[in-house]
Amino acid sequence: MNRWRAIAVTALFATAPALSAGDIQPDARRSGYSFMGPQTRAMQDDDTSNPGMLFVLDGEALWITKTGSAAKACADCHGDARTSMKGVAARYPAFDKTQARPVTLDQRINLCRVRHQEASPMPYESHDLLALSAYVGHQSRGVPITAGDDPQLRPFVEQGHALFMQREGQLNLACTNCHDDQYDKRLAGSPITQGQPTGYPLYRLEWQTLGSLERRLRSCMTGVRAQAFDYGAPELVALELYLMSRARGLTVETPAVRP
């Protein structure tokens, strides 16, 4: 967050009424798409104009590419992603028995690479990892989000909720202060949404590339002048899990487009 955005944040909360930090009721939850202007919506709606679709096409090629010491492709185990991956992204982060904790879709892709392809894990935010995640996520477009239903995930959902409510950083703000209490307002010209993670990985015009939900969360943490968690940190995974469970019932839009 630059100096002027920090000033805008301070001004917004200086003039706001007392913050309630209350959860949004399920029937009032809205995708970030509903907050976008007509040009951004049109870019997302048209696959020939949506820049995130370039990553999806790259992911499709990677899906059938043999790699690692095992010389296996994703398709060798999972077949046609258009059928085998439908609905998968809607339930992630999901519980992994060997890890005894939830893993994100990016982490699942890397676990498959190590366990079954005998390949090195891809770096977070690397083009190929984002492309595969976008390709898998795209197969669930239009599918209602169900993440967090597994009873084994309950303590992790609760951890994520606590993090969502926890004030942090020099600006002493929590996620809820913006995304529950101030949505439908504007910050430095951009709409404040409910923070529903329906379209990740998504193409952000500010980034001029595709990015994961973890990148967005780290950006928010830096924005309130807090120390951001490392990529893949259990806290980030728990927060992502809570956000996905909070968006339950909304539909997957991957790859979404945002300002």
Model regions low in confidence, pLDDT < 50 over at least 5 residues: 14-21
- The whole-number mean of residue pLDDT values reads 93
Number of beta strands: 7
How large is the count of helical segments? Answer: 11
Cα-to-Cα separation, first versus last residue:
15 Å
- At CATH level 2, the architecture of the largest domain is Orthogonal Bundle
Keywords:
259 residues; mainly alpha; Cytochrome Bc1 Complex, Chain D, domain 2; 2 domains; 3-stranded mixed sheet; two-stranded antiparallel sheet; 11 helices; 7 strands; 41% helix
In short:
This protein is mainly α.
Protein described:
This protein folds into two domains: 3-11 and 19-46 and 146-258, Cytochrome Bc1 Complex, Chain D, domain 2 (Orthogonal Bundle), CATH 1.10.760; 53-138, Cytochrome c-like domain (Cytochrome Bc1 Complex, Chain D, domain 2), CATH 1.10.760. 41% of the residues lie in helices and 7% in strands. It is built from eleven helices and seven strands. Strand 5 and strand 6 form a beta hairpin. It is globular.
Topology at a glance:
Elements: H1 3-14, H2 38-45, H3 52-63, H4 74-78, H5 81-84, E1 94-96, E2 101-103, H6 105-117, H7 127-138, H8 154-165, H9 175-179, E3 186-187, E4 190-191, E5 202-204, E6 209-211, H10 213-223, H11 234-246, E7 257-258
Parallel strand pairs: 5-7
Antiparallel strand pairs: 1-2, 3-4, 5-6
Helix pairs in contact: 3-7, 6-7, 8-11
